[in-house]
C-alpha cells in the first residue's frame, strides 16, 4: 500500500478509537472507573503528552535538538497565556513572531 | 428550567462553539503543513473530533513519525474523553441508539465543561449545555477546519509563516489550563525533558509516547485530590 493509503488507514483507525473511547465512557457502569488511581493517571497522561508535544514541537528539528525562532515565539505565547489571551490570539501571535524573526534572517 | 437561564446556557454554548471553532483554522493549516491533504484533514476533524488528539496526530506526522505512532499518541490523548462520558452519562440518561452514538462523538472538553458548569439540580440546563456546545463546536470546528486547510495549502513553506511555532503554541495553550497545581507542573516539566532527551536517539513519535510514563509514575502515588488536573 502507498504511504497515502496508510495515512487514510491511520485516520480512520484514530477516528474509530477516539469514538470507541467516548462510547465506552458513556456505557460503562460508573463503579468500574471509581478507582482514583486510574483517574489520576488519565488526568496526568493528558498533561504529560501535551507538555512533551510542546517540547518536541519547540526544540526538535528533524531528529535533533535546535534553538531557533520557535523558542521566542513560544515564550511570547506563554506570556499571552499568562495574560489570559484567547487561544486564537496566542497561536496567531506565535506564528507572527516566528515568521517575523525568520524574515529578519534569524532562526 | 426558567427561560432566562436557558438563554444564558445557550449563549455560553454558542460563544464557546465559536471560540473553539476559530482555532479549527490553525488545525486545518497545520495539518496541511504536516503533509496531509484537505480531505484527510477534514476526515480527522469529522472522525476524531478532539482538538488535542488531532493536533497530536498531525504533530507526529509533521515531525516525521509513522502513522502508527500518530494513531497511538492521538488515542492516548483522547482517553480523557472516556472519563468525560462517565461523568455525562447520568446527566443525559435515558439515552439510546443513534442519540447515544452522537452524544459520544460530541463528548469533548468544551461540551463537558459547559454541561457541568450548569447547576447540578437543573438537569435540563446541563443537557442543553451539553448538546448546544457539542453540536455547535462540531459544526464550527469542521467548517473552519476546511477553511484552514484550503488557506494552508496555498501558502508555500509553512515555516515562512511561523506555522511550526503556531503548533507549539497550540499545544502550550491546550496544556496551560491544566497546570494550576505544583504536581501537574512537575509532570509537564518532566515529560517535556524526557521527550527532548529521547529525541536524538529514538524514532520520531516515540519520545512523546514515552512521556506518558511520567504520568503513570506521578498518578501511582497519592497526591491530594486538588492537585489532579481536570
Number of helical stretches of at least 4 residues of chain A: 4
Strand content of chain B: under 5%
Oligomerization status of the protein chains: heterodimer
The arrangement of helices and strands of chain B along the chain is HHHHHHHHHHHH
Side-by-side strand order of the widest sheet of chain A: 1-2
Structural class by SSE content of chain B: mainly alpha
Percent of residues in helices of chain A? over 70%
Give the termini separation of chain B. 28 Å
Give Rg of chain B in angstroms: 19 Å
The total domain count of chain A is 3
Radius of gyration from the alpha-carbon trace of chain A, in angstroms? 19 Å
**Distance N terminus to C terminus of chain A?**
37 Å
Task: Give the overall average pLDDT of chain A.
Answer: 91
Give the uncertain stretches of chain A in residue-range form: none
Number of strands of chain B: 0
List keywords for this structure.
heterodimer, A: two-stranded antiparallel ribbon, 2 strands, 75% helix, B: 230 residues, mainly alpha, 2 domains, globular
Short description:
The complex is a heterodimer of chains A (107) and B (230). With 107 residues, chain A is mainly alpha-helical.
